[in-house]
Design brief:
Elements: E1 6-13, H1 16-27, E2 30-33, E3 40-44, E4 55-59, E5 66-72, H2 76-85, E6 89-97, E7 101-107, E8 113-119
Parallel strand pairs: 1-4, 5-8
Antiparallel strand pairs: 1-5, 2-3, 3-4, 6-7, 7-8
Length: 124
C-alpha cells in the first residue's frame, strides 16, 4: 500500500438503508455486507483498473452523517505521535481490523476527522 495516500473512504449514516439505495441508484456503486464484528458494508465504486478508491458504509455511532477518508501510513503508532505533535488529536485509539491491519482515527487542527491505517494480516 502506498504510504501517506488516501486508500479508503467511509460514509457514516444514521440510517444506512436509504443511503445504500441512493448510491446504488445514482452512481451504480455496489455494496457487500462485511462479515465482521460491526454492521459494515464494503463499497465498490468502479473497476479496479480505473483510478479511484473503494470504501465502506456504516451506521453512524453518534447519529451524525459524515465522510471519513483513511490514509495509509507505515506505522499507526508513529503517525499518531506525529499528528499530536503537529496539533492534531487522536480521537479513537489504535484498533485491530482482524486480518487487515491497524486503524486509528484522528482530527487535524481544524477538527476534520480522518483515519490512519497500516497493513498487518496478523492483526487481531
Amino acid at each position: 500500500m502506498p504510504a501517506n495516500r488516501p486508500i479508503h473512504f467511509e460514509i457514516h449514516a444514521p440510517d444506512p438503508a436509504p443511503v445504500i439505495e441512493f448510491y446504488k441508484n445514482t452512481l451504480g456503486w455496489t455494496f457487500h455486507k462485511w462479515d465482521g464484528p460491526e454492521e459494515y458494508w464494503l463499497v465498490t465504486t468502479g473497476d479496479a483498473s480505473s483510478p479511484g478508491i473503494n470504501g465502506g458504509l456504516m451506521k453512524s455511532r453518534d447519529g451524525q452523517a459524515r465522510t471519513v477518508n483513511t490514509v495509509s501510513v507505515k506505522d499507526v503508532d508513529t503517525a499518531v505521535k506525529s499528528i499530536i505533535a503537529a496539533g492534531g488529536r487522536n480521537v479513537v485509539p489504535k484498533m485491530a481490523i482482524p486480518g487487515v491491519g491497524w486503524l486509528a482515527y484522528c482530527t487535524d487542527p481544524g477538527g476534520n476527522i480522518f483515519g490512519i491505517m497500516h497493513d498487518d494480516k496478523n492483526a487481531t
